[in-house]
Each structure stands twice: as C-alpha cells, then as structure tokens.
Specification:
By secondary structure, the protein is of the alpha+beta class. 28% of the residues lie in helices and 24% in strands. The chain is built from 5 helices and 8 strands; from the N terminus they run βββββαββααβαα. Strands 4-3-5-6 form a 4-stranded antiparallel beta sheet. It is globular and about 50 Å long.
Length: 175
Amino acid sequence: MPVLDAALGRPAANVAVRLEQLEDSGFSELANGVTDSDGRCSNLLDPSLRLSPGVYKMIFETGPYFASSNTQTFYPFVEGQIKMSTSQADLPSSLPIVDLDVFRTEPGSAQAQEECKKAADALITYGALVVKDSRVSESDNETFLDLMEDYFAQSNDLLKKDERPEFSYQVGVTL
C-alpha cells in the first residue's frame, strides 16, 4: 500500500513507518522502515512472517516529511488500527468500492445498509472512499481523474489560493 502526497499528486518518499501490535501492557513495535521513491515500504516485514490474530496499528510520521519541504501540516502523524481475526489475514491494501447504485435502487435494503457501513468504515479507516456510479461513463471518469491529477500537480502557491479556512474544511486542497 503506497503512501501518497495528495497535495503534490505523487508518492511520498522518505516517510517513516512503524507497525505496532497491541499487547497486555499496550502497543509494542514490531517493525519500522522508510518509504521508497514509490511511496512503499516493501521491506517493512519479512515476507515469511505471518501476523497472528490481534490488534495492530500502522503509524506514518508525516510531520518530518512535510517539514523537510517547509510545509506546515495539521497532522504530525497518521495512524490506522487494524483488527486481524485470523493468522493468515492480509492487511487491507486498497479502499473498498462503495456501490452508489444500491443506494439509488434499493435505499432501505440490507445491501444498502452494508454499502453504508462500508463507506463509514472506509472514511474512519482511510479518511477517503471510492464510489462506483454506473451513470458515469468510462470516458467521463478518465476526464475527472485527469482533471484531479492536473489540479494536484499545481504548485503549493496555486493550491493555497483554494484554501477556505472559514468553512472549517477543504475541497480539493489537502495541504
């Protein structure tokens, strides 16, 4: 799972990463590493190691990453906790896809409730979600993705012009 700098639209290199496991006395470090130029920390764990059932957390030290480019950040680190119920479970490597069509066609159904739970879990776990909407053509989707990539490829000075702190949230700006 790569670490991405959404403000710059590219992988985040040189981000310190820690993996910790919950024990009776609290969390203890299992491994640590640093992301490479692709934003991945592929050597964090020995490939032969299988994590046992339990609670784990990944900590990404974003403060030093942003400080290295003289960029202020609201988040000095990002932490995600994972509960693994089986010893062979794989860590989630991508955002779940929320099917918007279910909400449109069966808003009160159990399946719609499941999609809602999936959306909530994605926002809690990742702070983002991916939505599938059959009304959007592949061409329109590609146009949107190109637009987003172009937007985030702009300089920080141009992106800062879109900041609206008086609204207490940002649309597009992730600085």
